[in-house]
Amino acid sequence: MTQLQKSAIEAGKKLAIVRERALSAVAVGVSFEELEKIAQEEIKNQGAVPSFPTVGDYKWATCITKNEGCCHGIPRELVVEDGDIITIDVGLIWEGVHSDTASTVCAGSCSQKVQDFLETGKRSLANAIRTAKVGRSVYDIGLAMQEAIESRGCSAVYQLTGHGIGHKLHLEPNIPCFGDDRYKKIKIREGQLLAIEVMYAQGDPTLVLAEDGWTYQSADRSLTGMFEHTVLVGQYNTQILTISPLEKNGVV
Length: 252
What we know:
Blueprint: H1 3-24, H2 32-45, E1 49-50, E2 62-66, E3 69-71, E4 85-94, E5 97-106, H3 112-131, H4 138-150, E6 155-156, E7 161-164, E8 171-176, E9 193-201, E10 207-209, E11 216-218, E12 224-233, E13 238-240, H5 245-248
Helix pairs in contact: 1-2, 3-4
């Protein structure tokens, strides 16, 4: 195992702790700024530094969005309201190696329809990770996501992608959330680090950029979700680096 892979494994463990602490704080009345501070504090506790400020002029440790907001949202003074679905995307750097993860949760009262919507994203990510094996293609991973999403009446975002990861936050290959024919010849290799992201919508998946210049939201204002893990592709299996003990035990 290379030093890069060893550091990536440790980075993923640390980031899982950060993500779960931030998600556990999501509650009615809590502001996005408070969630950002919690994530920053836990990243510091883990002896790591935030990853996202390495991208352009972004200044925050997290991207936080609600409802129609899909991704890249600035953690502002917005307050969580009852029934909101909240997405927290967070990354850190440990020993020069980046790790990236995201999850969407419901605050307060949550209808069965919304619970089913969130379950769709979790299943789609699981399908994609199971497909991310040596010799399979990036197309195969995207198709696995798309099939799981569409089988439950939702639609896959087509404008943004997951990505390779390592000494930089964003590396090749891009990993679409759907079966994109252009990626059929791009094969998965042993030892690759991938940030596999499921981004999807309850309605039309077309995204538009909000006035803040960062947040991507659904054009039709339908609910959106995002689930992401950083994984390490092994010779015989793929290891989820950002999985938490709660996820391993089937609690979340």
